[in-house]
Specification:
Helix content: 25-40%
Structural class: alpha+beta
Distance between the termini: 31 Å
Number of strands: 7
Radius of gyration: 16 Å
Number of helices: 5
Shape: globular
Largest sheet: 4 strands, mixed
């Protein structure tokens, strides 16, 4: 199946080295099954005055990999994302993690929960109305090497 990654850099061989800490599913290489979602993210780079590239990969899951899938925004997802964003390494038990992205509306709910303004019940109540979009995080280089095959990239132009 095809997956997409937006970046301000062009590359053919992704890695986990150039990842940031404290993201939704921890440190890793993020892709999405949703091309429109990746295209929207690419436009953020353009708005910031940077180059933008949409990378396309073929993703083939491997049964030898430890894969965690969050089907909904639920208590387990909320606890996991908050733990990762707090810098904990709970994600290191997995090779690949898939689930919903904390987009703008979801991010606001997570932020309010993490700040103590919402309790868990209020946060989960808000999240239950959100339809999860999609992200896959490749935690290990072995998962990238085994499950992702580069297909092509497209450079987006300013304007």
């Amino acid at each position: 199946m095809l997956v997409y990654h937006s970046s301000d850099q062009c590359f053919r061989e992704p890695d986990v080295v150039h990842s940031r800490d404290a993201l939704d599913f921890g440190r890793g290489f993020y892709v999405t099954r949703l091309k429109e979602q990746a295209e929207k993210y690419a436009k953020r780079f353009l708005r910031a005055g940077n180059d933008a590239y949409l990378h396309i990969f073929d993703y083939t899951p491997d049964s030898d990999m430890q894969i965690k899938i969050f089907d909904t925004y639920n208590e387990e997802w909320l606890d996991f994302v908050c733990s990762c964003r707090n810098g904990n390494d709970v994600y290191k038990h997995y090779d690949i993690i898939e689930g919903g992205v904390a987009n703008d509306k979801v991010f606001q709910t997570v932020d309010l929960y993490m700040a103590g303004i919402y309790n868990k019940e209020q946060a989960l109540q808000n999240l239950m109305y959100e339809m999860p979009n999609n992200q896959l995080c490749f935690i290990t280089q072995a998962a990238i090497d085994k499950c992702l095959k580069f297909i092509e990239f497209t450079k987006y132009n300013h304007g």
